[in-house]
Amino acid sequence: MKKLLLVMSLVCLSTVAYSQEKEGKDKDVEVPSVVEKAFMKAYPNTKAKWEKEDGKYEAGFKYKGEEMSILYNANGVWEEKETEIKVAQLPTMALSYVSKKQLGKIKEASKITKADGSVIYEAEVASGDVLFDAKGNFMKLQKD
Known about the structure:
disordered N terminus
């Protein structure tokens, strides 16, 4: 009887441990086929890591040597595209702003193109993401 109790306890513990391990991993995002088709049409033969963000679908991927992400709505229409750039490629006014406000070192920079063609720039600093318009004028600081 003691052996049976011991075996059952071990089985229960291993089941609990396994289920907790699975819960900690990222769950696959179910991407609507219309969104996948739009992505594949724009970026053929490209693998993406998908995330769901406020009811929209974001594909993170590397394309022609550039780190990118693109945000689609549920109808497969892209809303914005983000491309990683070198810090030195930020507008001069943006670099100057970060320096004058003593926001620290810029960890990453990106160019964000909206569906309407407008462009904004993002500089990641310790306190969050600093957004600038196309000319480098400060827009806002998004705290992490």
